[in-house]
Amino acid sequence: MKGRFIVAIVAAAALFLPDVTEAQSPGTIELGVVGGFTIYDSEVGLENAPAIGGRAGFFVLPNLSLEIDWTYAEPDLTDPPGWQDREFIRHELYQMRALYTHWLGESAGLLLGAGVNRDHYSTPRRIGSRGWGPGGLVGLRYRFSDRFSARFEGIGYYISEDQDAFIPRPETFNLGAQVGLSVMLRDRERVREVQLPAPPPDTVVVTEEVEPPLPEGTPTQLCLATGETVTVYITAQGDTLVGPRRVNVQDLGPGVAFAGEYAEGRAWFVADEPITFDELEYVQSGGELSLDCPSIRQVGDYMGVPLFADIDAESPYETLYVPVRPGVWQAYQTDLAEVRGNN
Question: Rounded distance, CA 343 to CA 335, Å?
């Protein structure tokens, strides 16, 4: 019983060492205390029991460490008495693994570990005293600071059968739960501060940049094919200025276009062909005109170009409006008297 607290005491003392750690980085050493509970395979012949121990790890990468856990337990025999009338035995478990931390946030991280385990039963006489096998770990790490953290883990390990041993060892698979406190140790890089003399004063010249005045122009409202109204400025020379800086559209280049689809340049519009909407035929009526967006609404489209009607008009519509280009529209009409006469 005396030896079971040695590693635990050493790891606990590490929690009170001076603060020499920062975040986990290559070269960081992790020391900690571990408390757990082991669920033994029925083939072992032991009652489930608590355990205590310690751990030590070394970070080879910011999120990857190599570590070893040692725990000590005194489980009762399920069929006592044992050797020399013992009611329990001593069980030491060594877990050597590679441990990966996947951070879920600033404080919490998922732990995934895999490695090899060694079972060591003392004074059993009915249980294979030693055995090696693979093991795994899944858990969570909660970091209180760059120095301290808590770990909550589930473990499992497999020990293969060995019938040739002095005491035959059965095939076993043990499970367990562990809770631990850890401290991170890392040498702090010392930075020597050198006080440099103040530089001589310089002459500072402050200049104020005055933006040129905005180009003058007459504000004009354009009704777009999207049904939205935009404001542009028309200069005395007939140039169109857009944007808060009133930039000439010609200076912006061909890559700039107003929103919406327009009829200008389309074959059916250039050829002055009738359009069809709601099984009615409409033909161009009059010349190009401008419209106020609040007075019209979209009622459909023709070959990708939206069709508009007066906002208070009802179907079937006598007049449709087709956007030719931004701010320019073309009316199309149908003979509703003929349509109603046929009905």
Answer: 13
pLDDT digits (tens, 9 = 90+) for 154-166: 999 998 887 776 6
Q: Is the pLDDT of residue 53 over 70?
A: yes
Go through the domains of the chain in sequence order and give each one's CATH number.
Answer: 2-185 (2.40.160.20), 218-252 (no CATH), 267-342 (no CATH)
Q: Which two tokens stand for residue 90?
A: 């001593």
- Please compute, for residue 266, the number of CA atoms within 13 A of its CA located in the half-sphere on the CB side: 18
The closest of 176, 148, 158, 174 to 33, measured between CA atoms, is 148
* Confidence band, pLDDT 50/70/90 cuts, at residue 84: low
Residue 200 class from Cβ within 10 Å (0-12 exposed, 13-18 middle, 19+ buried)?
exposed
Residues above pLDDT 70, as percent of the chain: 80
Location of structure tokens 């635990």: 8
133: which strand partners?
Answer: 117
Least confident range from 76-85, 113-122, 173-182, 292-301: namely: 76-85
Q: Where are the alpha helices (DSSP H) in 218-319?
A: 249-252, 267-270
CA-wise closest residue to 225 among 317, 296, 273, 310:
296
